[in-house]
Write a structure and sequence with these properties.
Blueprint lengths: L5 E9 L3 H11 L3 E2 L15 H24 L8 H4 L2 E3 L1 H45 L17 E8 L5 H11 L7 E7 L4 E8 L3 H10 L13 H28 L4 H23 L1 E2 L3 E9 H15 L2 E5 L21 H7 L10 H16 L2 H17 L5 H24 L6 H9 L17 H29 L3 H23 L2 H6 L8 H21 L7 H13 L1 H10 L1 H21 L5 H39 L21 E3 L4
Parallel strand pairs: 3-10
Antiparallel strand pairs: 1-8, 1-9, 2-8, 4-6, 5-6, 7-8
Helix pairs in contact: 2-4, 2-8, 4-7, 4-8, 11-13, 11-21, 11-22, 12-13, 15-16, 15-20, 15-21, 16-18, 18-19, 21-22
């Protein structure tokens, strides 16, 4: 059970080495910087906010430029980023990125400017296209749409919101203005919802005609062009073509820069590292000539890091154990079987300072419980093959994903094991296929038993496994108490509960009623039941007398003891919770069998084979996905609620070192 021991490190060095030391610490990624709130005399902090904002702006610019290149010239489809991982680079490659960072940032600005030019060109082309569309009804007009007449005439150029002929317009004008001589009207274009017209009358009647036209729904065009519509259309066409050509030129130039995408992302990572470094720099206490770095480092890395700082930079390094009033971070380190479930432990809470790492014990039960819930050998083999191939083929995936895949690999092995014991291979697919398509009976017998035929046995086994799980949790609690030399507490809080719960279980197993109710094939001898009853009584009395021992008042102590004894109901509910092992195990098999029977409904033959294949693939894919999710959720629940409830509180703080938190590359010599 490995919670790595932490050391408190204090580093004092000349400010001339500040940049190099911080880069070394960031590259190593083993020191969590924890700056004291109070400094020694002559020490003060430096405001680095402006520089940090500049670096963060560069990160945004570079990232946006890379995204723009992707949108203009999408990269060839390759491995998903989650499988590809970050590209490992050497120190030399990193130095090249550093040297070219300024030029790369300017390139990013150039790319964004090209993107704006391309967008502006497209917007201008759309504006011209909209103008051409608006001019289309007026193209037959050979004078400016701004014309209002001559010295002797009044001209009206506009539209009506309906389909009208020149005769209809003139008739309505004549009816509205009988005293006005004829008004000449020419229809420029007409549609179902608009009629564009040119009208002219004698100048002295202009106001009267305009009033009559407006009463008929006449409106002038919005923002009419100065040139005649035909000439304006030619001008807009030229402007549109020029805008499209300019946008295309910008796009072509962007495409020519598509191979610089990796440089942009590398530079973005570099500036992100600098922003992080300047954030840390702003938190450090510094004098005119010296600066101080303090924090926590795993004990296994402390000596090597301190030696590097002393030998390379002449720094003064102090190492000590954390004091009782300090809050060191928590970092877990386990073997190949337990390390994959560290994420499960972290999902609940990391161990507190007085606790141990529960990952090894969690791993032991996690794989067993998960496999029992899924319990199909074929599903387990699919999980093993899928996770195993990814782990073997993609060596560069991130460590967190590697641990998750390894966990599901072990869960798949456990699932295969239980599936073989229960004789489940895609449910009853083997006998169904043999019977439907080959007209014979082929079965693969279960090594142990078939849960669908004997669910009570699986239920009893689930309860037995749950009791073992809970008793293991009590054992871990006893271990922690004994390690702290709290021997009396270990007796009161664990041994008495072993006596009570274990005694009651053995007492039940010795009764004929329980044997008949659970269809057991055995009954414990009477003397075992008597002895178990004595142990249960001792445990109950011990709990009543000690559960409220922190109270000085005898009455309160007794009441708290009785309330503590009431927690036996909690153990009952915890044990019953393990019936979910039966429920999920049966659900996997039943659903698999249903899809097998569904696929065989059309019988043999080509059509039946096709239908069976489709139903088989779709059904078992859904069943595997749903029940893997169910097994994952319920296995976590049994760990978090039932198991951790017996000994584990958590509350630890995750170790978060000052490191290169990059997205595209990682150092090959980080450690």
């Amino acid at each position: 059970m490995a919670v790595l021991k932490m050391k408190r490190m204090s580093v004092y060095a000349l400010k001339t080495h500040r940049k190099a030391i911080l880069e070394l610490l960031q590259r190593k990624g083993v020191l969590e910087i924890d700056t004291p709130k109070k400094a020694q005399p002559l020490f003060e902090k430096t405001d680095t906010g402006s520089a940090r904002q500049t670096f963060e702006k560069n990160v945004r610019t570079l990232t946006q430029a890379a995204a723009l290149l992707d949108s203009v010239s999408p990269p060839a489809k390759g491995l998903p980023a989650v499988l590809r991982g970050r590209e490992p680079i050497t120190g030399e490659r990193y130095r090249q990125t550093v040297d070219a960072a300024g030029d790369t940032a300017r390139l990013a600005s150039r790319i964004l400017a090209l993107g704006k030019r391309m967008d502006d060109g497209k917007a201008e082309a759309q504006r011209c296209a909209a103008g051409l569309e608006a001019l289309e009804p007026w193209l037959p007009l050979d004078i400016s749409m701004r014309s209002i007449g001559t010295e002797k005439t009044s001209v009206f150029i506009g539209s009506f919101p309906e389909a009208l002929t020149a005769g209809e317009i003139q008739s309505r004008l004549a009816a509205a203005l009988p005293q006005v001589p004829a008004v000449e009207v020419e229809v420029i274009s007409s549609g179902t919802s608009q009629t564009c017209v040119f009208a002219v009358c004698h100048g002295r009647y202009g106001l009267q005609v305009e009033s009559a036209l407006r009463a008929m729904g006449f409106t002038y065009p919005a923002s009419p062009p100065r040139l005649p519509p035909g000439e304006r259309a030619k001008e807009l066409t030229r402007q549109r073509d020029e805008a499209l050509a300019d946008a295309e030129a910008a796009r072509q130039e962007l495409c020519s820069l598509a191979d610089r995408r990796q440089e942009l992302l590398f530079a973005a990572d570099y500036y992100a590292m600098r922003a992080e470094k300047y954030r840390v720099l702003g938190d450090l206490w510094q004098s005119p000539h010296v600066f101080q770095v303090t924090g926590y480092v795993p004990a296994e890395d402390a000596e090597a890091l301190g030696r590097a700082l002393e030998e390379d930079f002449g720094a003064c390094v102090e190492l000590r154990d954390p004091r009782e009033d300090e809050d060191p971070p928590v970092k877990l380190k386990n073997g190949p079987l337990a390390a994959p479930v560290e994420g499960v432990v972290e999902g609940y809470s990391l161990p507190g300072r007085q606790e141990t790492d529960p990952a090894p014990v969690v791993a032991l039960f996690y794989y067993v419980l998960f496999g029992l819930m899924l319990s199909d050998a074929a599903y387990g083999l699919l999980m093993v093959l899928g996770c195993g191939l990814i782990l073997l083929k993609f060596k560069n995936i991130e460590e967190s994903l590697r641990k998750s895949l390894t966990m599901f690999l072990f869960c798949g092995i456990s699932t295969t094991f239980w599936g073989v014991l229960f004789g489940s291979y895609f449910g009853d697919a083997i006998p169904v296929i043999a019977r439907t398509f080959f007209h014979t009976e082929i079965t693969v017998p279960a090594v142990w038993f078939v849960p669908l035929d004997d669910p009570m046995r699986l239920l009893l086994f689930s309860f037995l496994l749950g009791i073992l799980h809970l008793f293991t949790g009590l054992g871990v609690q006893a271990y922690l108490l004994i390690r702290r030399k709290r021997f009396a507490d270990a007796l009161y809080d664990t041994v008495f509960w072993y006596f009570l719960v274990g005694g009651l279980i053995l007492l039940l197993l010795s009764t004929e009623m329980f044997r008949n109710m659970m269809s057991l094939s055995f009954t414990l001898p009477g003397w075992v039941g008597t002895t178990a009853a004595v142990f249960a009584g001792v445990g109950a009395v011990g709990i009543v007398l000690t559960a409220g021992r922190e109270s000085k008042n005898p009455g309160k102590r007794l009441l708290k003891g009785l309330y503590g004894l009431y927690n036996i109901s909690g153990y009952l509910s915890d044990i019953l919770s393990y019936s979910r092992l039966l429920a999920l195990g049966l659900a996997t098999g039943v659903i698999a069998n249903v899809f097998n029977q569904l696929g065989s409904m059309l019988g043999g033959g080509v059509g039946g084979a096709i239908f069976f294949t489709v139903a088989f693939v779709i059904g078992h894919t859904m069943n595997l996905a749903i029940n893997v999710l169910g097994a994952y959720v319920h296995t976590n629940r049994l760990q978090y609620v039932e198991f951790f409830g017996k000994f584990y509180e958590g509350g630890g703080r995750k170790f978060q070192p000052f490191a290169a938190h990059t997205k595209t590359f990682k150092f090959t010599e980080e450690k």
